[in-house]
Design brief:
Layout (H helix, E strand, L loop, with lengths): L3 E6 L2 E7 L12 E3 L6 E3 L3 E3 L7 E5 H16 L2 H15 L2 H15 L2 H15 L2 H15 L2 H17 L4 H11 L2 H15 L2 H15 L2 H11 L2 H15 L4 H13 L2 H15 L2 H15 L2 H19 L8 H7 L13 E5 L14 E5 H7 L4 H5 L4 H20 L1
Antiparallel strand pairs: 1-2, 3-4, 5-6, 7-8
Length: 407
């Protein structure tokens, strides 16, 4: 059936439609079935195409639009098309007149009140998203750990504080702000969380190690701890700490366990060997020994020990001796010549002839009289000395006898 029908649908002239293109009964006159979706639609839903049978496209406008959209998507995804498009866009955007027009348009567009408000609302909504907050926080953390950023921030803060933070109104405002309870709590919470991060711990340890190895820091530290008031304060602090219950015992146990380690013993032995071999240490030891032996109490102790050794060798009687009392009884004068220089303790009856080493057999004598008398009998020796020596010794014996009677 190839007969043609001419029809009028509303105000649109349908034209010649071949009845053979449709099945009579299924599609009314002025209608056409889409070859893509299979729906019977009005001829207004089809594009005209002179080359097609009947003068209309076989697919409706909706299916044609879908097909064109899919084709455009596939075509735009081709690498060569993308590359050509990017090249054209780059060349176009590089034109001076285009740049100028864009800048003017952007300036005018962004100045619109509704655009400002919309951007503000969008930023507020965008920054409130949890994933955006987390990403921003992570980025800030990584950014601030960069060496160049850290150095730049430190330099800027130093300059800023010197110029701005010295102002009275700024100091007052900072003090009031940081005194707020909520600010204190927030800073404490943030500091606790911040310093617990592994990367922060590692960065702090690395920085502390580098800082302490600086020559100027070492020198300043030595000068600080060498101050007398610091030494006293540290000694007092250590004394108070060790006085706490359990601390002293814990320290002793740890020191005992630590010093018992083989590697510690070996290290201490090597250090002592190296330390005592230093020229300055040897010189300091010599100076100390010289100064120590020149002390009056040390000299007296040495003489006492020497007398005891001599008395033991000769089998003499040995009793406890108070050398200070002997000097007091002799009024710090030689009992023979009365001299007050180069005084020593002399045995009246010499140890060499069996005299005892006791308080009653000891007197104060100058080095000259002691050497001259030696192991001689005191009465025989005084006969060879000036008359003044015999008078002085007699006066000493008289004072001694009176003191014994008073006791």
């Amino acid at each position: 059936m190839n007969s043609k029908v001419k029809s009028q649908v509303g105000d649109v002239e349908v034209g010649d439609v071949e009845v053979g293109d449709v099945e009579v009964g299924d599609v009314e006159v002025g209608m056409k079935r889409c070859s893509k979706c299979g729906e019977a639609k009005s001829l207004e839903d089809f594009y005209k195409q002179a080359a097609s049978r009947g003068g209309w496209q076989s697919q409706c406008k909706v299916c044609t639009a879908k097909r064109q959209k899919e084709y455009n998507k596939e075509y735009s995804a081709r690498p060569e098309v993308k590359k050509a498009k990017q090249k054209r866009s780059k060349e176009y955007s590089a034109r001076p007149e285009v740049k100028k027009a864009r800048e003017e348009y952007n300036k005018e567009y962004c100045a619109r009140p509704e655009v400002k408000e919309a951007r503000k609302e969008y930023r507020k909504e965008y920054n409130a998203r949890p994933e955006v907050k987390a990403a921003q926080k992570e980025y800030r953390r990584k950014y601030r750990t960069r060496p160049e950023v850290r150095d730049a921030r430190r330099e800027y803060n130093t300059v800023y504080q010197k110029k701005h933070c010295v102002l009275p109104e700024v100091k007052k405002a900072r003090k009031e702000y940081y005194a707020r309870p909520e600010v204190k709590a927030a800073r404490e919470e943030y500091g606790k969380e911040y310093y617990a991060r592994p990367e922060v711990k590692a960065a702090r340890e690395e920085y502390e190690e580098e800082y302490r190895s600086r020559p100027e820091v070492k020198e300043a530290k030595q000068e600080y701890y060498a101050r007398p008031e610091i030494k006293r304060a540290r000694a007092q602090q250590r004394k108070e700490h060790l006085a706490c219950p359990g601390v002293k015992k814990a320290v002793e146990e740890y020191n005992r366990e630590y010093n018992a380690r083989p590697e510690v013993k070996e290290a201490q032995k090597e250090y002592r060997k190296e330390y005592t071999a230093r020229p300055e240490v040897i010189e300091a030891q010599k100076e100390y020994i010289k100064e120590y032996r020149s002390r009056p109490e040390v000299k007296g102790a040495n003489r006492e020990a020497s007398h005891r050794r001599r008395a033991l060798k000769r089998g003499a009687t040995i009793e406890p001796v108070d050398e200070a009392a002997i000097y007091t009884a002799c009024e710090n004068h030689c009992v023979y010549c009365g001299d007050t220089e180069r005084l020593t303790v002399d045995h009246v009856i010499a140890l060499a002839v069996g005299g005892p080493h006791c308080q009653d057999n000891l007197v104060v004598a100058c080095l000259s009289c002691n050497s001259s008398k030696c192991a001689k009998n005191v009465d025989e020796w005084l006969k060879t000395q000036p008359e003044s020596s015999r008078r002085n010794y007699a006066a000493y014996k008289k004072r001694k006898a009176e003191a014994e009677l008073d006791d």
